[in-house]
Design brief:
alpha+beta; binds flavin-adenine dinucleotide; FAD-dep_OxRdtase; FAD/NAD(P)-binding domain; 3 domains
Length: 465
């Protein structure tokens, strides 16, 4: 066999499971079709760590709640920004009061702790900046916000350092059952293995096609608001089931210090409707404060963890759920347990449970920054003016284990080009550094996927670009 375990898909769950399995004496490969791991993680690098209160079904609630309990330790270990924010699920009408009362009772029965039902006066004590009229709210002290891409990349980097073989830019085309184990066929190779862990969203070629094809999905519409110019809330504010078209409206204080307003809708609504519905959670939104408007296809809240074929070496995991990040620590441990119970392996003695360190210059005190610049002048050269990211950090993001190979990869690892000018100032500098460090032409540098070249061609024949 080429490998003991092959993980299909380098998304959040694939990377986390690779990390968990890399603790064992196993020969593991992870196959990902994109240039980078976790390429589909939410573009705005801030996610809610839910606690299961809001979930309709019990399985999702359990996965979120267990993941929530593990998240702060993981973030501390991996040095990932984690902000315990707390949350309010609000009711504005009598009908909504009944809905959240029933949600609260259900959450209590599910064994979710640290939650309270607050009346009007108590709500404004918890959240003085809430500038709308509210009757009742479920207050949870469990919820938090984190940077999801950072989490995924940390899992992947440690797995890589502990021997997992990451095969990027390789598309899985087929999975064939052999008399013993499986053959995984990609656009570049054929591999054999004992166990296949399929975390790709279409469930691979063999399993769960019916449940996937029947998904409905929704759209999520985001406003990213600049922090200094608004009444910022300390808690995540959520409101459910506004009307037939609107599933949920959210206001989230992000780990980066901004605020995200989001409208989760069944229909594709545009900027104006997003503005209209956002006003239900936040009065007097000034359009001048809106830094960015994003619109994504969202999820149908599907969770499939199918280990019924584990005796034949196949586990299928499909999570198309808005709380996938929150579930990941628990889900990945569960999958790992299933695998190690079905294959001969032991815990490694030399497992390194540590992420390689790197500098975030803008967060360091001046005297420390000076010492770093004395060692390497590139840490004194600012490339992204908006977010104050230096050339040293960009180079490091490319040279780190599983380093960035695209502009998007640099942005997500460093925060460069995520500022107000959205790369207007630094995009060409990022492309230049990436080309230099990877020994490529600037015209070969892509934004995130094949054919997304940031420069289509040379327009003048200079010696350098
Ligand atoms: C807008 C938005 C907001 C979100 N907010 C939150 C939040 O607040 N809290 C929270 O907990 N979660 C949240 N989520 C959920 C979470 O961020 C995502 O579900 C999760 O990150 C999905 O990303 P993934 O990388 O795990 O993708 P997955 O789809 O799970 O990963 C599968 C991977 O498989 C790869 N792949 C697919 N087919 C093949 C193939 N044939 N061969 C090889 N590789 C293949 C894909 O490229 C992908 O990388 C949000 C999601 C979105 C979109």
């Amino acid at each position: 066999m080429d490998y003991d375990v092959i993980i299909l898909g380098g998304g959040m769950v694939g990377c986390a499971t690779a990390y968990e399995l890399s603790k064992y004496s196993l020969n593991i490969a992870l196959i990902e079709k994109d240039y980078d791991v976790a390429d589909d993680v939410a573009f705005i690098n801030s996610s809610i760590v839910y606690d299961g209160v809001e979930c309709k079904d019990d399985l999702a609630a359990k996965l979120e709640n267990e993941g929530n309990k593990m998240m702060s330790n993981i973030c501390e270990k991996f040095h990932i920004p984690f902000k315990k924010t707390g949350s309010l699920i609000i009711a504005k009408t009598d009908e909504e009061v009944l809905e959240i009362e029933s949600m609260y009772e259900k959450a209590k029965k599910r064994g979710i702790n640290n939650i309270e039902l607050l009346d009007k006066n108590e709500i404004y004590k918890v959240e003085p900046n809430l500038n709308i009229d509210v009757k009742k709210a479920i207050y949870s002290k469990n919820t938090a916000s984190i940077a999801p891409f950072d989490l995924a990349i940390a899992y992947a980097e440690i797995a890589f350092d502990n021997g997992v073989n990451f095969k990027l830019e390789e598309v899985v085309l087929d999975i064939q059952k052999l008399s013993k184990g499986y053959r995984v066929i990609t656009n570049k190779n054929k591999f054999t293995c004992n166990i296949v862990l399929n975390t790709t969203p279409d469930g691979g070629t063999n399993a769960n096609k019916d449940s996937i094809d029947s998904r409905k999905g929704s759209n999520i519409n985001y406003f990213l608001l600049e922090d200094e110019s608004m009444n910022k809330c300390n808690n995540i504010i959520q409101k459910f089931n506004y009307n037939d078209a609107i599933k949920r409206i959210l206001k989230v204080p992000t780990v980066e210090g901004n605020t995200v307003l989001a409208v989760d809708s069944y229909k594709n609504i545009g900027y104006s409707d997003t503005l209209k519905y956002s006003s239900l959670l936040f009065n007097n939104i000034k359009e001048v404060d809106i830094n960015t408007f994003y619109n994504f296809p969202y999820y149908d809240d599907l969770v499939v963890i199918d280990d019924s074929l584990i005796d034949r070496g196949y586990v299928n995991v499909v999570i198309n759920h808005y709380g996938q990040v929150s579930m990941t620590p628990y889900v990945s441990q569960m999958i790992c347990e299933t695998v190690v119970n079905n294959i001969n392996c032991v815990l490694k003695k030399n497992f390194i449970d540590k992420r390689r360190e790197y500098y975030k210059i803008r967060e360091l005190p001046q005297d420390e920054v000076k010492k770093i610049i004395d060692m390497d002048k590139r840490y004194g050269k600012i490339v992204c003016m908006c977010n104050k990211i230096t050339e040293g950090e960009i180079v490091d993001s490319i040279r780190r284990p599983l380093g960035a190979r695209t502009i998007e990869g640099i942005k997500r690892r460093t925060g460069a080009a995520f500022g107000r000018c959205k790369g207007g100032y630094c995009l060409n500098k990022l492309a230049y550094i990436l080309a230099r460090e990877t020994d490529k032409l600037m015209t070969d540098i892509v934004k995130d996927s094949k054919k997304s070249n940031v420069m289509p061609c040379r327009i003048k024949e200079f010696d350098t670009m």
